[in-house]
Amino acid sequence: MAENFDKIIEKIEKFNTIQRIAICAGIILLISGAYFYLVIMPKFDMVSTLREEEKELDEQLDNVKEKTKDLKKIRNMAKHAEEQFEKARRILPDKEEIRTLLESVSRAGREAGLECTLFKPEQESIKDFYAEIPITIQLNGHFHNIAVFFDKVSRLSRIVNIQNFKIDIVEKNDKSLLAVACTAITYKFLEAGSHGKKKRK
Description:
Elements: H1 2-14, H2 17-91, H3 98-111, E1 115-121, E2 125-126, E3 130-141, H4 143-154, E4 160-172, E5 175-189, H5 194-200
Antiparallel strand pairs: 1-3, 2-3, 3-5, 4-5
């Protein structure tokens, strides 16, 4: 092996300067090519792979950001809906309060100086989370007293809507009075699960 190497050296020494330079350049190119192929090229492939992975991760990150925005929006909507529901629930009487509310409406008529000829709660109508309770009301009195009654009803802490309003004139004790017939709609909050049972019944 050493003898062969020495023979090669002796042959190179016999070459002129240009040939020696060419041989050295060839050796350098050969080593550089091998280094480039064995060391540099795999790193290029690795960089290309990492860039593709980076691109995929960026896309996934963008998707996550979009979903996060949607999630925040949905949470805000749910929070707003919950607040609205809680607000509505507070102004709807529950089962225990409905009797007190009916008494308040009846008392408002008496305090306004009206003669209540009919005060009849009708069959309740089940909705989603509440029930409508219509009350047939007939009142006799002067216009001012009737106005006071409706003002008192509007100031109640619970919701009471007046519908099917009808006015006639009646004579009583040689006096002309207004006879008012209407339906007062009030609402009752239904506990979770109870409205489903009532609907099935």
